[in-house]
Amino acid sequence: MKVRTRFAPSPTGFIHLGNIRSALYPWAFARSQGGTFILRIEDTDLERSSQAAVDVILEGMRWLGLDPDEGPFFQMQRMDRYREVIAQMREQGLVYPCYMSVAELDALRERQMAAKEKPRYDGTWRPEPGKTLPVPPEGVQPVLRFRNPVGGSVVWEDKVKGRIEISNDELDDLVIARPDGTPTYNFCVVVDDIDMRITHVIRGDDHVNNTPRQINIFRALGQEPPVYAHLPTVLNEQGEKMSKRNGAKAVTQYRDEGYLADGVVNYLARLGWSHGDDEIFSREQFLAWFDLDHLGKSAAQFDEAKLRWVNAQHMKATADDALALLVRPLLEKRGIAPDERLPAICGLFKDRCDTTLVLADWAQRFYVDVEPNADEAAKHVTDGVRPAIGMLAKMLEGCPWTKEDIAEAVKETLRATGLKMPQLAMPVRVLVMGTAQTPSLDAVLALSLRQKVLDRLRRA
């Protein structure tokens, strides 16, 4: 059996990290098993669905590299297929028209709750042998309800939650088509999963209550349901369910804030799945290791500080040229035209950066005039060190512009003046880079333009 998984978001709001994890795991499982990953947009909520939300889903998945093998498919474009299946179910007696009004349903629920019973449809319009149905009211379009099995249980082995058993007596007859004939969510999902030959459904545990209803529809249509894995909720840093209302950010905002796609994928993968104690891993390692047997059973809590740390590790491991490709457009947005030095600049500073935005801030100092930090300048650029700075400037005027030759010029200045390295290096860094906290002085100067270095040292 070839594995076929799907991600089926509703475009009713922007997609955040809690949502996209439900794309990451089915994508990873399909890739790890040599299977197929399908994207399906469940856009039947016409009032709340928007093209902008669809665009963010597609853009976020593209950025993270979660490319589908098939799709996107849109449920609104499949209405003829749903109606065809509903017609078959009517012919087979699997559904029936129900004329109970919303007011009657509300009154029924109130009576049931007053009697401390579970509120549910009572089967008034369900045909049964020997039962006399009420006379259909004139001018009322009925809903269609699915004839849920009576007695017995729905049982499935959930890959996260283990064995789940729900009595059919707990389930009422589900509405599968509204009065205007529009099919409902739980019905469309089943038809889609059958038509798309889905073998594994990996989704959030807010769908657990839908699963027994969907399984019964699968079986009524003569199909075996897929394997289910219901993922625990992702909580925000306050311990609430992650949502836009609770301050969650769109996935694409992390891209705009300078996170690497591989860093976010690594962090998200660990937010509900583990491979021993491994914290940092490549995308290739993740796909080699991923399975459904090590999915977490408890809710995972988002931690932005941890995400930044994971991203920093990926920054260090990323090739200089690859980082330069990401930093270049950030500098260009600031009106800076980077040159061939950029990859080496990225390589020098990437170990002290946790996002590409921070790396761009460092790189910018090589291309624009910087103003020395006033406090650091007052502390390090003193009258006692100015003669040594002047001597170094003179030596740098004519020496070959390599890291090794610059290092020798610095050492010679130290020998001539009797200063220690920090006494000279700190003020030179402040003058050239605006701050005393940089990588080694010779490496920084070698990547700077000679004339700019000389001009800045002469400021002293």
Write up this protein:
It is built from 19 helices and 12 strands. The chain has helices at residues 17-32, 51-64, 79-91, 102-114, 185-195, 211-220, 251-256, 261-269, 283-289, 304-317, 320-333, 342-349, 356-364, 374-380, 386-398, 403-417, 421-433, 441-447, 450-457, and strands at residues 4-7, 36-41, 70-74, 95-98, 143-146, 153-158, 162-167, 175-177, 200-204, 227-231, 234-235, 300-301. The strands form 5 sheets. A 3-stranded parallel β-sheet has the order 1-2-3. It catalyses: tRNA(Glu) + L-glutamate + ATP = L-glutamyl-tRNA(Glu) + AMP + diphosphate.
Most strands sheet = 3 strands, parallel
Q: Estimate the strand proportion.
A: 5-15%
Task: Look at the structure and give the mean pLDDT.
Answer: 95
Principal-axes geometry comes out as: elongated
Task: Compute the number of helices.
Answer: 19
- End-to-end Cα distance: 74 Å
Report the CATH superfamily of the largest domain: HUPs
Helix content: 40-55%
Strand order of the largest sheet: 1-2-3
**Helix/strand class:** alpha/beta
Number of strand segments: 12
Total of domains: 4
Low-confidence region ranges: none
CATH topology of the largest domain: Rossmann fold
The radius of gyration computed from the alpha-carbon positions, rounded to a whole number of angstroms, is 32 Å
CATH architectural label of the largest domain: 3-Layer(aba) Sandwich
CATH class of the largest domain: Alpha Beta
What's the gist of this structure?
The protein has 460 residues and is of the alpha/beta class. The chain has four domains: 1-90 and 153-168 and 179-317, 3-Layer(aba) Sandwich (Rossmann fold), CATH 3.40.50; 91-152 and 169-177, Glutamyl-tRNA Synthetase, Domain 3 (Glutamyl-tRNA Synthetase, domain 3), CATH 3.90.800; 318-364, Orthogonal Bundle (Helicase, Ruva Protein, domain 3); 374-457, Arc Repressor Mutant, subunit A, CATH 1.10.10.
